[in-house]
UniProtKB/TrEMBL annotation:
<feature type="transmembrane region" description="Helical">
    <location>
        <begin position="139"/>
        <end position="158"/>
    </location>
</feature>
<keyword id="KW-0472">Membrane</keyword>
<dbReference type="InterPro" id="IPR051784">
    <property type="entry name" value="Nod_factor_ABC_transporter"/>
</dbReference>
<keyword id="KW-0046">Antibiotic resistance</keyword>
<protein>
    <recommendedName>
        <fullName>Transport permease protein</fullName>
    </recommendedName>
</protein>
<keyword id="KW-1133">Transmembrane helix</keyword>
<feature type="transmembrane region" description="Helical">
    <location>
        <begin position="170"/>
        <end position="188"/>
    </location>
</feature>
<dbReference type="GO" id="GO:0046677">
    <property type="term" value="P:response to antibiotic"/>
</dbReference>
<feature type="transmembrane region" description="Helical">
    <location>
        <begin position="27"/>
        <end position="49"/>
    </location>
</feature>
<keyword id="KW-1003">Cell membrane</keyword>
<comment type="similarity">
    <text>Belongs to the ABC-2 integral membrane protein family.</text>
</comment>
<feature type="transmembrane region" description="Helical">
    <location>
        <begin position="102"/>
        <end position="127"/>
    </location>
</feature>
<dbReference type="InterPro" id="IPR000412">
    <property type="entry name" value="ABC_2_transport"/>
</dbReference>
<keyword id="KW-0813">Transport</keyword>
<feature type="transmembrane region" description="Helical">
    <location>
        <begin position="61"/>
        <end position="81"/>
    </location>
</feature>
<dbReference type="Pfam" id="PF01061">
    <property type="entry name" value="ABC2_membrane"/>
</dbReference>
<feature type="domain" description="ABC transmembrane type-2">
    <location>
        <begin position="25"/>
        <end position="251"/>
    </location>
</feature>
Amino acid sequence: MTTYFFGDTGVLTGRTLRHVTRSIDTIITTVITPIAMMLMFVYVFGGAIDTGRAQYIDYMLPGILLITIASGISYTAFRLFMDMKSGIFERFQAMPIARSGVLWAHVITSLVANLISLVIVVGVALLMGFRSGAGVVEWLAVVGVLLLFTLALTWIAVIPGLSATSVEGAGAFSYPLVFLPFISSAFVPTETMPGPVRWFAEHQPVTSIVNTLRGLLARQPVRDDVWVALAWCVGILVVAYVFAMVAYRRKIA
């Protein structure tokens, strides 16, 4: 059964990946907004924000990477919604394949597509002056955290992808996720925020994830932030996965 699952998931992943490569504009659209934000913050607002000895591009890049992921997962919900509406799920159910492989194909495709988008954004950041003292181990840790965050948000995307009644509704969930980094330590130190806003910023998941990525890229101690970040990512992943599977079973029942 396990062999069938991996084989079926591999075939179905190839199908969804072909959809991405045939419409490369989705990846371009995904990276345009984060790159535009990066240009605006660095060249317009960067000079007015005190980040100590760190260059502003180095300081804010982790937040831009999270926004890139939040933008990219909306296409996962869109692709899943279109599959639901086209009736292909019903055809898959009539075939001797692992049913959960259909969802995992979309999830793996999301990881690949978002990884490509992240590489493009980091490439632009390097052209803008981003520099990192991180070694191989730190970069692998950064990639691991980003992939775990992408996996968690992708399973959130599966829920509206299965349950939305319109294309707009399938992608609308991503807007609050894109906005969340703005109320965190991603772009300005939380110490500059008023009381209630500062409390929220310091206790929401993005801040711990951003601080972890920032520390790894600067090759500085990440302290407890890494454990808090991992706990948030794993917690969101588990809860989203459970609700996504419940929504899936209702659809195929």
